[in-house]
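ERR on first pass: missing label on line 2. Operator R.T. fixed the label and resubmitted. Corrected input:
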Amino acid sequence: MTPAPTVPLVCYQILAAILFTIGVVGVLVRRSALIIFMSIELMLNAVNLSFVAFSRQHASMDGHIFVFFVMAVAAAEVAVGLAILVAIFRNRDTANVDDVRLLRG
Amino acid sequence: MLDYLGWIPALPLIGAIINGLGAGRLPRKVVSAIGTGTVGLAFVIALGCFNALLQLPPDQRYHLEQAYSWIDSGDLSVPVRLLLDPLSMVMVLIVTGVGFLIHVYSTGYMGHEKAYGRYFAYLNLFTFSMLVLVMADNFLLMFFGWEGVGLCSYLLIGYWYQRPSAASAGKKAFVVNRIGDWGFMIGMFLIFVAFTTLDFNRVFTEAPGRLMPGSAMATAIALFLFIGAIGKSAQIPLYVWLPDAMEGPTPVSALIHAATMVTAGVYMIARCHILYTLAPAALMVVAVVGAATALFAATIGLLQKDIKRVLAYSTVSQLGYMFLAMGVGAFASGIFHLMTHAFFKALLFLGAGSVIHALSGEQDMDRMGGLKSALPKTHMTMLIATLAIAGIFPFAGFFSKDEILFHAWESGGPILWAVGVIGAFLTAFYMFRLYFMTFHGPSRLTEEAKHHLHESPNSMTIPLMILAALSLVGGFIQVPLMEGGQRLSEFLAPVFADVAHVAGGAGAAHGAEHGGPGLEVALMVISLAVAASGIFLAYRFYMVDPAAPKRLAEQMRGLYKLIFNKYWVDEIYNDKIVEPIRRGSIALWQKFDAAVIDGAVNGVGRQIERGAGLLRQAQTGSVQVYAMVITLGLVVVLGYLALR
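pass 2 clean. output:
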């Protein structure tokens, strides 16, 4: 039985790179904190995709384990990050990052 | 008993700490008990040590007591170690004994003062410092005591700090003393260079081997140490602080500015007698400065109106005699005069204090007179002290002053002797002027003073009587011309014995002591006659013909003005030294300190602030901008790695 024809690794990598870049641009150019947050998730998942693809290619479980960790941490991060977002919105009635510039020297 | 040696300075220190920390909280009785009790106990221990020292054979009377190692660094090793030999024993007995009497007197004299605890804390601290000074076994520890007594002197002169004159007198004493301390320190450094140690025993035993007699090093060490002595013991040209020090309470003048602290310079020279014997030129300087001061200060004393200032100038003059003794190599005689002077001058000051106390603070002799009947005890004791300082047989001052004059003739020559004798004449004159103006003649008291006039309480008169007894018999421990009569010289002999081994100078003087009994008697008769004529002249001037001094002043107007204004020395110092330094300091402050140093420091600060302002522009506070910069940086680095 011949193995089913598979999508080559490079395609996964290109997809992962495209997703990652979309995430980066989203973080850099969007003004809404919520969208920035989603963009970060996109970047994380691009990396996850890359990990899984490599894991399959090398027939190793290591990549899967990395991905589980990333997903666990991302879940925690979402919980904390959204809480901060809500707190900022309650305080300032906005989620626009341009209005939150307290680190100015 | 010698094991308790450390307690002698420790007790007054404990008293100072308790009284100092408890100032204003402890009741007066407790303060008095601690203040006098600690010094009294120290005196008792000192007597015990004296007894123990006498039990030892003369050449073994040398006791060291190490407390702990203070500094130990390379070649320099300075222990806190107390030394007890006959010389320091005499000083310890004077400091604790006379000090105790003055502490007791103070409980009466200062009884009405508000800051009673502060006074006793200072006085105890002074006693501690003075004891460290005389018991130190190395130069640095001695210097510690030296500075300590200077500090206490400053604090006590400025005791009534609310009075501007007292505060500035304290400052003057401190600054003038610093000039002397500078000399002492340079001398100490030179000793360390020459000997690589500051230990008395090593310096003095090695000195004859390491320093050539008359060499430049020996002379420099001796002269710089002498500058220290000039400052502390108020000799020409640094005597100016002592008369002003009379702004302090009278018991302080008695203890610090007459009996003990100002004799520190004399003690120091006696302690370093080997170094001075190796430097005959320096010894000559000591003798000349001493004789000049003895005469100079005596002339100023002639016309002073303030009772305490007369005594202050007389102290300066008497210290001059002690230095004259040191200068002619008669070290034991100088210490003898130091001791008798401590008795009668402390008595004079305390007597003057008793008069001032009785007159509610009056110090001007023009507003005294006729106090003999009102203050019988004070009058009697003052008379004894005045006779003692005038050098009348058989009072203490007669023996010690004559011994100095005899040695001045023997090894200093007739000129030094003549200066000393003229000084003695003036001393007899101005002291009896003080006596007659205070206790005899018509009463010139103000109405208010008359109203309060009273003899002092027992706490004041009893110390007066004890000191009077000492002034009366104190001279007999050193009777001239008698076999076994010179007990003090014999007691001190082991300390000064090494002089005989050193070439030249004072060795000869020592041998000459037994030289001419006829000469000694002749000199004695002369100085007795001189003293008597001084007293007689004072009697003529101030008892028989009170108008005479005025007539004489009219006749010699220029001289009178010169002496009355104390030779304008204070004014000259002020114009030629103090003012230029003050103006120079202001110029330095405004031109150099404010412009150059502050300019440099502030300029550096301003430049940094400006640079920081530029860098601050990069911090916009927008996280997205930061992220953009990071991303761009990453792209550049990755691009570089990829395209390399």
